[in-house]
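Hey, quick one: can you model this chain's 3D structure?
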Amino acid sequence: MANLLKTLTLTLDTKHVECQLDTAELVDEPATEEVVTFCGTDSSSSANYKLNLGGFQDWGSVDGVCDILHTAYIADPPEEVAFVVTAGGKTRTGTAKPVSDVPFGGGAGSPLKFSVVLDVVGTPTDGSAA
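Sure thing. Here's the predicted structure for all 130 residues.
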């Protein structure tokens, strides 16, 4: 039987931020290319990792995800944010850049939520949780 992981932690720039989030996933959306020669077609792909984050707007809090990502996005050029995702006994670490600003505000009577995508720089490093 599979062991269902119910706990995930996320650190952005050394701040633990998982309590503000309902989504934190590191996904690979590989870029693929086909090369056609007289001998046939060959395919290749290269990693293209994204860090998808979603949760509740926490503007102004000490370890606020929204403030961390907004500050990185508005820098010229946009700054890299260090991350560590821990699921079970494994970690993935790296740096990522926001590709858009974090939403600010929302609809009346609803929790103020956000969803944002960060481009991971290079390939995340696998590790073990301490």
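One thing worth noting: The two ends are 25 Å apart (CA to CA).
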